Amino acid sequence: MVGDTIAAVATPPGEGGIGIVRVSGPGARDVIKAVFFPRYGRGVDEWASHTLHLGTIIHPDDGREIDEALVAWMVGPRTFTTEDVAEFHCHGGAVPVRETLTAVLRAGARLAEPGEFSRRAFLGGRLDLAQAEAIIEVIRAKTRDGLGAALSQLEGQLSRRIDQVRADILALLAHLEAMIDFPEEDLPDMGSERLRVTVVHIGKQIGDLVERSRTGRVLREGWRTVIAGRPNVGKSSLMNALLDEQRAIVTEIPGTTRDAIEEYIDLGGIPLRIVDTAGIRETEDIVERIGVEKTREYLEKADLVLVVLDGSDGLNQEDEALLRSLVDRPAVVLVNKSDLAIRRLDDVRLRSLVGKMPILSVSAKEGWGLQELSDLIRSMVYGQDGSTVAGREGEGPVTRDGGRSALVTQARHREALERADFHLRQALEAVDVGASPDFLTIDLKAAWEALGEITGDTVGEDILDKIFSSFCIGK
Ligand code: GDP
Ligand code: ZN
């Protein structure tokens, strides 16, 4: 597909070392000819592909000098968009970048729409849709693990898995359709038990991906975490200790409305979205600050509750009421002030109250037990033995080294997977009641299509528009 020639600024606004204007399309060569005066004579027609050239950017109308720059020249199809690409690396200030873009547009390119470079990469077959979306995920990653998940998607881990399940579905469909079309032929009939096994197998693979989407969401959006406990047990101190522990404060996700009392921290690669840290740090308690009702609301919405108790004090009614309200919730009990010699907390009583909830001894003051807490949260995200969502069949899990596994991070993918999962359940039901193959094929086809939406095989223009328009200009 040959489109027109598009151009956009690829670097963020503001001052920087360099600013890049990206050009893609059949006219990229002519744009260079019109706006670039090479230092060492030879023109673009003599340049090898994938080389850098120093020179001056000039305005095509009057030859006025704009900036000294490097031009990267890449001939399609071995480029991001699969088209000819020129990148002008000028000085990273508002004026040189803008003037360079103006010159390029004057030379015949048009301003790219948001995500148009990525869209061309998709249309050119360079990336599938899941991979194109992964570019945004890489850029917006909030922690190392989040980056690992996005990179693996960009490299096609998720796409390969999806393709594999779709191939299995297609093989089964072909078999079923042969059975429907030629019932009296001597086809090797697929016994109902074998049919069941095949459907179950496909369903399991999809179910596994749905499961992985839980971890993916955590990595993308952060675990909503609430620190709860009565006054003076050490909630604020714990918050501060966690803030000291984290590697870097992560910026907010663009596009989400940020609650005034939430903050992201990066604990061992897992992003936590902790409620009311700003308030807590100013010595206020979440309960004092936002009231009991609101606290209850946060507790209900939380992915994780850190219940803080004072180990140097006995359990009182307030503690017990809180613990009871959290039974069956993802919560960790932190027995704080373990640095103190006095310990009045009744462990047997505590255990009987919290059931299977993990209990950790910590000292917010000394920073004791925080590593254990971080490891525990990690195992809660990735599954107890690390196998729930971590990679199998030779793929490494997403580990501290940023390993690779097919995690599902996007809501769009999750939604498509859930639909596929639903249809596989229906198909299994059809098998179990001995329904005719026609019923089965309807659901299998629907599942196949739902999965194809993830890789972009079966999506319409409208969805493509929606996805790519959420990209920035220049991507
Ligand atoms: P909050 O009301 O639950 O937020 O509790 P704070 O964090 O404000 O702490 C209440 C008091 O307990 C303060 O005097 C802290 O210094 C003290 N404290 C908090 N954590 C620890 C701890 O681990 N060890 C000791 N010895 N004191 C602590
Ligand atoms: Zn406090």
Automatic annotation (TrEMBL):
Name by which UniProt lists this protein: tRNA modification GTPase MnmE
UniProt keyword annotation of tRNA processing present: yes
Keyword ATP-binding on entry: no
Similarity comment: family membership: Belongs to the TRAFAC class TrmE-Era-EngA-EngB-Septin-like GTPase superfamily. TrmE GTPase family.
Database matches in InterPro entries: G_TrmE (IPR031168), GTP-bd (IPR006073), GTP-bd_TrmE_N (IPR018948), GTPase_MnmE (IPR004520), MnmE_dom2 (IPR027368), MnmE_helical (IPR025867), P-loop_NTPase (IPR027417), Small_GTP-bd (IPR005225)
Residues engaged in binding Mg(2+): S236, T257
Organism (species): Heliomicrobium gestii (Heliobacterium gestii)
UniProt entry keywords in alphabetical sequence: Cytoplasm, GTP-binding, Hydrolase, Magnesium, Metal-binding, Nucleotide-binding, Potassium, tRNA processing
